[in-house]
Amino acid sequence: MARPRKKKATEAAPERSPQEAALCEKYPLVNIVPGSWRAPGGRDGWGTKATVVTLCPCSEAEGKDVTTVRATSDLFQVGSLCQVCSKARSKNKAAKRKEAK
Ligand SMILES: [Zn+2]
Question: How far apart are CA 72 and CA 24, in angstroms?
Fold first, then answer.
């Protein structure tokens, strides 16, 4: 049975806007939460940047939605990893680099 998904403060429509659909096409590896796209100035604290909410792959393991707000201009480099996962990943990379020496 599917569990009901918890919604955070934003009551986002589950439909993708054209802008969001374009981003999904551009960054197929990034997991963008449907309906989370906000126009520049549309999200507090992000100034004039357009933003989306991404869902980290660790959500499944965590048993909850692990989401992060991103500027759309950053998507190409950050992917959909949450802070914890991207930290863990860069740690792993650093460790591997050490081992290689
Ligand atoms: Zn994560």
Answer: 11
Q: What is the pLDDT of residue 42?
A: 96
Q: How far is the CA of 34 from the centre of ligand 1 (A)?
A: 18
Domain span at residue 38?
A: 18-100
Q: pTM of the entire structure? A: 0.75
So what's the pLDDT on residue 8?
54
Instruction: Report CA(70)–ligand 1 centroid distance (Å).
Output: 14
Distance in Å, CA 19 to ligand 1 centroid? 25
Q: Residue 65 and residue 79: Cα distance in Å, rounded?
A: 16
Task: Please state the domain count of the chain.
Answer: 1
Q: Residue 74 — φ and ψ, nearest 5°?
A: -95, -10
Q: Is residue 1 part of a domain?
A: no
Cα of 87 to ligand 1 centre, how many Å?
9
How remote is the CA of residue 13 from the centroid of ligand 1, in Å?
Answer: 24
Domain assignment of residue 2, yes or no: no
